[in-house]
C-alpha cells in the first residue's frame, strides 16, 4: 500500500478578520489527494473576530490545532506599509521555531509554513510536493510601496538583491537594470528556479527539518528579518532553495488589496469548479501583430531581408523613416504592399535625442489601435522557427509582454561573446500586447532609453526561448560607423559603457558559430 505523505500546514496568525477569512477559505480548498493534511495555527490575534475565525475553521475542518499566544503586542500597518520592529520579528521567529519543533515531534513528511495574508491556488500544496525539493516557496508579488513596481518575495543574494552579480563584479546601472529585468521576467515565467532567499509561503521537507533548519538569529549577521537568517542557515548546511512560479499566491498586503483578494479567490474557485467540465469554448479571434520599426538609410543593408522575414506573421506595419536620403521608404512600400502599412517621414532626424524618436514610434503605432506590437529594428530578425512558434505566444491569456535573447552577429554566421558582448545572456522585450487602460512612462535619456516605455515590466510578462539575430555589427564598416556615432553622441559614456565602446574595434573578438 502506497504511503500517504503527511503534511502540516501552519501559520502564526496576527491578522485582520477581513484578510484572514480569505486566507482560511483558500486553505479549505487546497487539493489533498494522496496526502494527509493537518493544520496548526498560533493565535496571536488582538481582534477577537480573527480568533473566532480560527475556531470556526477548526470546527469545519478535520485535524486543526489552534494554540493561543500569550503575547499582547500591537502590530501596526497602514495604507503605505507594515511597521515591524526587532521585537516583533524575533517573536514571529520564535513562533515559527515552535512550529518546526511540533512538525519534527509529530514526524510530518513536510511542513508548509504560510503567512496568513496570502490567498492560495487549490493546486499549490500538491504541486510543491511534486517538485521533491527540500525547501521550496510558491512565488507571490507585492508592491512594497503603493506606487512602486510589484516584486516577488524571493531574491538571489544578501538581503534582497534581485539580479545576478559575481563577487567583485562592478556593474553599471544599465547592466544592473538589464539583469534585474531578466530576473523579474523569469519569475513571471512558469517554472522552478533556484534562488538565494525566500519566505512566507514555504514547503520544508522532513530531511531539511532533521538537518536543523530554523529561524534563530545568527549572532554575527545584521540582515533584517527572520527569513534571511533561515535561508542563510539552510544554505550553510548544504540545502538549496527554490521558488515555484506556476501558481502565484495573491498577497493581501493592504486593506486596498482586500477587494482584489476576493476577486482572486472567486476566480480560482470558479476555475476549480469548471476544470473537469465539458464546457464548449468558442474559438478566440486570431491575435494580430503590428510591426513597429524605425529606419534610416537602410536600403543597402538588411531592410529588404528583414521585412521579408517578418512578412509571414505580421498583419500590419508602422514605419518611422528618420530622414532617410536613400530609397528605404520605397523598399518598405514594395515589400509591405500585401498588408496595411503606415509610413511617417521625419524631415529632420530625431536620432540624437532617441527618446523623442521612440516616443514618436510608439504614439504612431498606438494610433493604429494595435493588438500585439512587435518592435524590432531594421537589422533584427528572428530565427526561422519563430514564424510557426509565435502562434502559441499570442493565443495565451496570461501574459501581455514577451522578452527574447538577442545575439550580436559579427559576421554572417557567427555572433560575439565576451565580457562586454553578452546581450544573448539576457532577455529583452520585443513583443507587447497593447492595453489602453495602462499608463505608459518613458526613460527620459537622449540615448539608450529603450525601444518600449520603461514601465512595461509591470504588465504580466514572460520569456521565450526563440532567438533574435542582430546584424547591426556584422560588417566592419557598420562597426566603425557606430563607433564614431557613439563617440559623437555620448563622448563621456554617460549613457553607455566606455570600455564597451572601445571594444567595438577589437581585432580578434571571441566569435561563436550560430546554429539554427
Care to give the gist of this entry?
The protein has helices at residues 17-28, 48-60, 86-105, 124-130, 173-188, 206-211, 226-236, 258-274, 303-311, 328-335, 354-366, 386-395, 476-489, 498-503; strands at residues 5-13, 35-43, 64-68, 76-77, 82-83, 110-114, 118-119, 135-142, 151-152, 192-195, 201-205, 241-251, 289-295, 316-321, 341-345, 372-375, 380-382, 401-408, 414-416, 427-433, 461-470, 511-513.
List the helices and strands and how they pair.
Layout: E1 5-13, H1 17-28, E2 35-43, H2 48-60, E3 64-68, E4 76-77, E5 82-83, H3 86-105, E6 110-114, E7 118-119, H4 124-130, E8 135-142, E9 151-152, H5 173-188, E10 192-195, E11 201-205, H6 206-211, H7 226-236, E12 241-251, H8 258-274, E13 289-295, H9 303-311, E14 316-321, H10 328-335, E15 341-345, H11 354-366, E16 372-375, E17 380-382, H12 386-395, E18 401-408, E19 414-416, E20 427-433, E21 461-470, H13 476-489, H14 498-503, E22 511-513
Parallel strand pairs: 1-2, 1-6, 2-3, 8-12, 13-14, 13-16, 14-15, 18-21
Antiparallel strand pairs: 4-5, 6-11, 7-12, 8-9, 8-11, 10-12, 16-20, 17-21, 18-20, 19-22
Helix pairs in contact: 1-2, 1-8, 9-10
Strand content: 15-25%
CATH topology of the largest domain: Spore Coat Polysaccharide Biosynthesis Protein SpsA, Chain A
Range of helix content:
25-40%
* Largest sheet report: 10 strands, mixed
Silhouette = elongated
* Tally of strands: 22
Calculate Rg over CA atoms: 27 Å
The CATH H-level homologous superfamily of the largest domain? Spore Coat Polysaccharide Biosynthesis Protein SpsA, Chain A
Q: What kind of assembly state do the chains in view correspond to?
A: single chain
Uncertain segments: 276-284
Task: Give the CATH class of the largest domain.
Answer: Alpha Beta
Q: Total number of helical segments?
A: 14
Mean pLDDT over the full residue set:
90
Structural class: alpha/beta
Amino acid at each position: 500500500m502506497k504511503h500517504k505523505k503527511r503534511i502540516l500546514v501552519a501559520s502564526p496568525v496576527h491578522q485582520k478578520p477581513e484578510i484572514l477569512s480569505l486566507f482560511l477559505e483558500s486553505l479549505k480548498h487546497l487539493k489533498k489527494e494522496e496526502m494527509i493534511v493537518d493544520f496548526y495555527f498560533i493565535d496571536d490575534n488582538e481582534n477577537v473576530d480573527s480568533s473566532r475565525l480560527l475556531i470556526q475553521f477548526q470546527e469545519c475542518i478535520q485535524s486543526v490545532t489552534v494554540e493561543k499566544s500569550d503575547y499582547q503586542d500591537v502590530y501596526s500597518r497602514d495604507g503605505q506599509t507594515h511597521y515591524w520592529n526587532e521585537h516583533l520579528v524575533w517573536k514571529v521567529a520564535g513562533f515559527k521555531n515552535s512550529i518546526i519543533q511540533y512538525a519534527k515531534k509529530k514526524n510530518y513528511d513536510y511542513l508548509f509554513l504560510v503567512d496568513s495574508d496570502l490567498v492560495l491556488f487549490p493546486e499549490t500544496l500538491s504541486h510543491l510536493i511534486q517538485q521533491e525539493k527540500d525547501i521550496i516557496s510558491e512565488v507571490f508579488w507585492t508592491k512594497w510601496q503603493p506606487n512602486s513596481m510589484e516584486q516577488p518575495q524571493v531574491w538571489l543574494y544578501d538581503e534582497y538583491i534581485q539580479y545576478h552579480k559575481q563577487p567583485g563584479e562592478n556593474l553599471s546601472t544599465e547592466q544592473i537594470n538589464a539583469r534585474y529585468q531578466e530576473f523579474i521576467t523569469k519569475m513571471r515565467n512558469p517554472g522552478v528556479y533556484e534562488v538565494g532567499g525566500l519566505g512566507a509561503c514555504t514547503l520544508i521537507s522532513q530531511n531539511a527539518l532533521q538537518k536543523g533548519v530554523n529561524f534563530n538569529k545568527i549572532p554575527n549577521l545584521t540582515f533584517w528579518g527572520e527569513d534571511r537568517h533561515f535561508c542563510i542557515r539552510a544554505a550553510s548546511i548544504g540545502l538549496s532553495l527554490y521558488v515555484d512560479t506556476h501558481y502565484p499566491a495573491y498577497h493581501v498586503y493592504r486593506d486596498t488589496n482586500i477587494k482584489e483578494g476576493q476577486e482572486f479567490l472567486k476566480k480560482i474557485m470558479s476555475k476549480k469548479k469548471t476544470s473537469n467540465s465539458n464546457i464548449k469554448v468558442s474559438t478566440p479571434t486570431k491575435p494580430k501583430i503590428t510591426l513597429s520599426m524605425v529606419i534610416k538609410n537602410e536600403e543597402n543593408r538588411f531592410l529588404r531581408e528583414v521585412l521579408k522575414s517578418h512578412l509571414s506573421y505580421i498583419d500590419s506595419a508602422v514605419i518611422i523613416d528618420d530622414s532617410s536620403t536613400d530609397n528605404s521608404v520605397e523598399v518598405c512600400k514594395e515589400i509591405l504592399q500585401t498588408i496595411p502599412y503606415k509610413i511617417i517621414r521625419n524631415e529632420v532626424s530625431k536620432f540624437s535625442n532617441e527618446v523623442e524618436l521612440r516616443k514618436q514610434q510608439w504614439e504612431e503605432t498606438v494610433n493604429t489601435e494595435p493588438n500585439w506590437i512587435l518592435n524590432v529594428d531594421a537589422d533584427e530578425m528572428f530565427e526561422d522557427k519563430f514564424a510557426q512558434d509565435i502562434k502559441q505566444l499570442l493565443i495565451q491569456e496570461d501574459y501581455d509582454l514577451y522578452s527574447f535573447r538577442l545575439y550580436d552577429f559579427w559576421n554572417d554566421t557567427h555572433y560575439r561573446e565576451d565580457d562586454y558582448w553578452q546581450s544573448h545572456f539576457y532577455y529583452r522585450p520585443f513583443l507587447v500586447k497593447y492595453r489602453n487602460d495602462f499608463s505608459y512612462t518613458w526613460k527620459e535619456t537622449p540615448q539608450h532609453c529603450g525601444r518600449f516605455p520603461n514601465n512595461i515590466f509591470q504588465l504580466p510578462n514572460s520569456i521565450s526561448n526563440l532567438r533574435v539575430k542582430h546584424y547591426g555589427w556584422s560588417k566592419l564598416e557598420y562597426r566603425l560607423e557606430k563607433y564614431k556615432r557613439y563617440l559623437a553622441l555620448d563622448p563621456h559614456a554617460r549613457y553607455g559603457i566606455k570600455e564597451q565602446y572601445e571594444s567595438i574595434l577589437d581585432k580578434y573578438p571571441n566569435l561563436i558559430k550560430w546554429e539554427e
